[in-house]
Amino acid sequence: MIEDPLLIWKFKHGSRAALLRIYEKYKNDLLKLAVALLGDVNEAEDVVQDVFVRFAQSAATIRPVGNLRKYLITCTANRIRNRQRDQRRHETPSLAGTEALVSGARRPEQWAMLSETLEQLRQAMAQLPYEQREAVGLYIEGSITFRQIAKIQNVSINTVQGRYRYGITKLRSLLNGELKHEASQ
User: Does residue 101 lie in a domain region?
Assistant: First the structure.
């Protein structure tokens, strides 16, 4: 983490290499979070690209307080929230594309099982209210504390903990229901 303040300083002074290093260092974390929140790899990639474009454009004014990773994760969560608000006015967002996360290095039967599992998880996540999905995704994928999530969502810590708890409970229920349903067939 000592590297981050130096990277920010170099970036603010025009270093493209510093911006590239920041991108390479954090893009996978941001992409995992965006996929968890959106359920769509292509849309997640667009969000992460938007976050870095805006980050790059803010060189003169950027002042991330504390951890750069958490700053970028917060930017990603906010960007997703803004996109979803805008999309609600026009259309329902697509949730296809999680199959791209499955590794091609697996045997076909492993690939099929993993693909099916990812699809079940995507469908279960899609059934959560967005606030719960965001709390679960930020906490698990983003490694963000409940206190930080509360600031992002502009609610109390207790509300975030409740959203997380209800989200996890509903996911377990949905996924266990799927597993029990398959076992009975």
Answer: no
